[in-house]
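Justification of computing resources. Each target in the renewal requires a structure prediction run like the one illustrated here; the chain below, 292 residues long, is used simply to show the kind of job we budget for.
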Amino acid sequence: MKVKIAETEFEIKNTLPDMKLLVLRINEVMQENKSYLSHLIVDDAIVADDPLDYVKQNRKYIKVVEVILTASNSTQQKTKMTKSSTRDKIGPMQVTISNIVFEVKRTIPDVKTMFSKIDEAMSDFGVYFSHLVIDGVEVTDAPQEYVVKNIKDISNIEVAFLSQDQYFGQVVSIMNNFIEKAAPSLKEVADEFYGKPDSETWDRFEACINGISSLLGIINSLVAAPEITGKAEAIAVLGESIGLHLENLHTAAKLNDFTLMADILNFELVKFLEKLHDAVNELARSQNYATH
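Resulting structure tokens:
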């Protein structure tokens, strides 16, 4: 994200260590200028209450932060009270769903009602939820939680949907991206189990298995979708077969049979991923899903 402090601009990553560095930098500037933190302007929105905590909690979504300093503590408190009072007087949020604009009060029950309307729109129009655009910023991760956390600061919410083809194209892309990364990783982990596995080997092994378990969940959701019924038999069969391989792998791990574990990883799970990759691409070709 880009940060502006006292006519100085720089960029930081959205990691917790960088957030700590940001706080240190703000403190340095305040000491140099004998000033105090008034508020932050975060992507054009004024944040006066616990502004640094706000940035920390929402660092994944923020693009620009401008630090506003004031000359005295009394002025700081006055500014915070003014900004807080102004914000408390702000009316309801403006929400747009499928070109229909309506207002939502700043309460948790009303936010839940808004998401119920999103579900209704998906059912009525045969579309799939993609993300929210909140005051110009795309929010894809835990959107309802994001709205609740920032309920006092949000002005406009636009709901973005995907068509059926866009949605399934996205699912296919996610599966393909995972497979292309997971297959080489499984081979590397298998090679390590043929030798002398260490703690890092076990960590990578656990990460791979967790990923395949998540992939299995995606497969089950995909083949269960009414729009896909009868079009993904090969994927469904593969999804059923992977359960047995994972069970055998679990048994081998309990016995500390590293050679058997390596064989299952190398000859069963990698083969499963390769076949799944072919089946997924065939589905995409047959249904003309765009996979970007």
